Amino acid sequence: MNAHDLPSTTVTVIGAARSGVAAAELLSSHGARVFVSDQQTADRLRSSVELLGRRGIPVETGGHTDRVYDCSLMVISPGVPSNAPVVLGALEKKIRVVSELEAASWFCRCPIIAVTGSNGKTTTATLIGRILGDAKKKHVVAGNIGTAFSSVVLGLAETDLAVLEVSSFQLDHCETFHPSVSVILNITEDHMDRYNHSMEQYAASKARVFMNQSGDDVVVYSADDEWTGKTIRNARCRALPFSLSRRFDEGAFVENETLVLAREGKRSPVISLDEISIRGMHNAYNAMASALVGSMLGASTASIRSTLRNFKGVEHRLEFVKEVNGIKYVNDSKATNVDSVWYALQAFTQPLIVLMGGRDKGNDYSRLQELVRKRVKAIVAIGESAEKVEQAFKEQTRVQRAVSMDQAVRMAADLASRGDVVLLSPACASFDWFQNYEHRGNVFKELVGKL
Q1: Which domain holds residue 329?
Q2: With a threshold of 0.90, does the pTM exceed it?
Q3: What are the tens digits of pLDDT across the range 174-199?
Q4: Are 408 and 425 in contact (CB under 8 A)?
């Protein structure tokens, strides 16, 4: 199916938040008969319901009725997992199911740069966008990052560039999605509750980002990541690596503590690692991937260097909030898996008080235990998984449980001393106490602001 097949097609869109509304508007404007369904209450979706009503698009809230199956095509929003009952029900009924990303791509006339990985997607997609902007390349940054691809795709000219953050859930239901450049930053344990605790299934989901690439298309990948290395063997396009420990004739690497790009027989030193403004080893990887993509898309070495010096990172990712009584407070609410927290703990030399917990995704905390023992002064366990967090780390450090974010922030302030860092780095989803990780991070920042 493509955009030309939509007139008179019956479509159900699952999800009435930003992406669902944008997809419904896009498909309806091209002749599809669209119905929207969401599990959330009408009160929580008031603005979406009103907008859809003005467009003449019917919507139901508070759960999915059987009406969702009165369609030939189901489009699912980024937050809807592949194993959601409504999705499984549609597949059982032989209804075609695609992601909002796939549907939006049917209308895209310009090259797509798709960024995926367990960690670093938002930072890297944002940084690629900043590199392109500083190099005066017209582009948009959209996808899982917060701006629905459906909401911007019609405004793109053939000469523009679409930089998209893409998740495994979105890729699970892609069919024809075809980036010119794809990026796989890493594949580490995440969403195990939704992939039957199988890394093979999860890695196969990530590999779908390059399934339609061939010939002169490029996949940029981490040569230091085991699962990414395995996955990339199936690529039918050019593969360009980046690494902190290896060097290449083509790719990005570090030599003498300097990020180097090697392309078309030329080696170009870009910037020393200590000049990159975003901290941590994980951000060195993000910078290498972004610089490599930027270079391929025409950004000069000097322009890339300037961007890497000045880019301050993204909200909710190791975001400095405030210093109170010599204690620094840092918001890393976007750390929704164990691997993200591992990188966050590595980024600091000061003693840490860590707020950790939320809705567990099948986490295995054993990887963090030695690092927690060495670097973490105390943990404040929060959310539904507070007991699991306490059991995982009670032998490594002091653990206290909090029943609200307000109590957690006050506990952390009491546990901290001058020179310490209080770090919200949950390792879990936010949906127990909050609407999303942004909501969680904003509440944390608001409470810190009152200290």
Answers
A1: 319-449
A2: no
A3: 999 999 999 999 987 655 556 555 78
A4: no
